[in-house]
Each structure stands twice: as C-alpha cells, then as structure tokens.
# Entry
Amino acid sequence: MRRKALNFYLQGFVLDIGNMNDWQRKSPLDWETYVNKLVKVVAVEKHEYEGWVLTVDPVSATIVLATFPENEKGSLSFIMGHAIQEVEILQEVDSDMKQRLAHISAPEESQAYSPEELEKRKNALKTWLETNHIPVVEQGEQGRTLSVAGVLTIEPPYSPEQCSSANEIILSRMQGLLQGYLDQQPPSPAEEAFCL
# Structure
C-alpha cells in the first residue's frame, strides 16, 4: 500500500514539473543573473513588461520589476512565474540606478538616517542588549541585521516596527523593550529634522 501511495505521489510530482515553463525551471543562481538588470518580460497573452529586476522569488519564480516614471517615486510590478514566457536583458545597471534600486526597497525611515547614524544606532542597541544579558549577533551581508537569541531580527533603523519574529509573544515583549530603550535616548539629528 505504501509503495502504491509513493508511486502516486511521485507521478503527481513529475506531472507538476512537466507543467513548469522554462523560466520556472531555472535555478536561483540563474535568476540572480537578472537582478539589477533592465529587462523586457513577455508574459501570457503577449503582455509585455519592462523594468529593473529587483528580485526573483525562488519559490514561485515571480519577478519583481521596479520602474521609475518621470517625476514620481519608483513603483513595483509583480509578474507571476507561471505566466512568464520570455525574459530578455536590455541593459546592465550603472551606479546611479543601483543606488535607486537599493533605496526603493529600504524603509522610508531608514533613508532619513545616514549610514554612519544607522551604524551608531545599531551598535548602541547591540551594546544595550548585551548589557541586559540578551544574546544578540549581527547577521546579513553587511551585518546590518541584529539577530536576538536566534528567534527575532531587527532591521535598520532599529525601531520596534523593524522587529520580526514568528513568535508573537517574543515579538511583543521585544518591541516593548526596544520602545522603552528608544524613549530613554536623545533624538538623533534625523529625528529632530523629521519632527520640524
């Protein structure tokens, strides 16, 4: 009986793979070559989209495209992986566009802080957590994310809204602790400018 169920399961899996398009069959390493490139995407029913690839979801193969209409902030479009028929790279990224793409996904609050202010906030918070015997480590490419006890992360600009955890009790308690800590801190130049 088990073998029959396994064969049925495997046949279903093979059928699912058989229905995948070329884009969905690519690996995350293949998709990474499209990130930060200007592309033209042809989707079902000959719909065409053009924009800068911000990321590709590794599960659904969905492309996130950023566009920058004149005199407007950037906007995002999501093209579902199953609908993609063709992706053509049109242009490589330059340093100005790379910076714009980095800012489109950054929280607005963190854009108000200079990199030096963010580093100072991160180090002060990390020191405060360690002083209070709360285990914390830096993680991520540039060490910008703080990981608390391996169950909660804090992203820049290190305020309660940037806390993330699957455990709602830990999340709520840490947000309360963090808010109490921030209430005791003098306002930064970015916060003072924001309040004016």
The first helix runs from residue 2 to 18.
